Amino acid sequence: MKKNIPVYDIQNFPAYKNDGILVSRFGYYAQQHQHLHSAHRHSFYHFVFFTKGSGKQQIDFKTFEVKPNLIYFMIPGQVHSWAFESEPDGYIINFSPSYFSSLLLHQEYLDKFSFFSGKPEDQVLVLDKVTSDKISSLFEDILKEGQTEQPINDDLVKVLLLQLFITVARAANNSNETTINPYHHTILRNFQQLIEKNYTQLKLPKQYAELLYITPNHLNALCNDFLGTSAGKLIRDRIILEAKRLLINLDLRVVEIAEKLNFEDQSYFVKFFKKYEGTTPDRFRKQYLTTPYGTE
């Protein structure tokens, strides 16, 4: 069986130019950090753009292909692994949650990008050639900046990073953000942020609707119309995700996980997990830890 899943901090990696960021060509990075191919978590933001290679990767228990012109983004806390079938290359950047604090007035600025939502289906993108060429050039500029001896802070790198994010976001052409009016977009964004902060304590849509000063029916209608799912499912999905993250930590017993997620008892947690995942927590744990990708 695999050991407990490790959590890596930005300080675990050599600095690129200043503390809080690492930039590298991916082929070199993958060779230097073989231990990162197996399941692990980060306490920092992380993204990779592949220019060559094939295989699979998993983000929060969902599997995606590795191929040229694919870029993926991850936020702190997510579970990740790679399984390459041919030698990969490209670019990788890791940066701390506070990296933009000296440049951006509002730290939630990154939340506007759908690929930093924490939802795997929004975080993996295949780019067209024009966009791929643009961001390859930006990556090269960032790498060159790291090699300069100028005793200047790395605000230029931060600006280049933001330019890269905006370029990818425009190419992705997120239809949700272009069709939802600002009022509805704000409600849905606030709902998702409230789930992230309160999912262990608040498990019913009506509890969130009260915090948002709208009716449960209105909240559910917005989720169905613009996100294609119910408010209740969004809450349940976040609870299930955290349960999976905790289950691959062998130090935690199922009863302890039930307590962490604020279930009345272990039995109720097991029934909840089995109802929505089709398997028990113990079976999920065994299957994930004894196979490369477990279940999806």
TrEMBL record:
InterPro entries: AraC-bd, Homeodomain-like_sf, HTH-like, HTH_AraC, RmlC-like_jellyroll, Tscrpt_reg_AraC-type_HTH. It holds the Pfam family HTH_18. It comes from the Bacteria. Residues 189-287 form the HTH araC/xylS-type domain. The keyword Heme does not apply. Keywords: DNA-binding, Transcription, Transcription regulation. This is AraC family transcriptional regulator. It comes from Pedobacter ureilyticus.
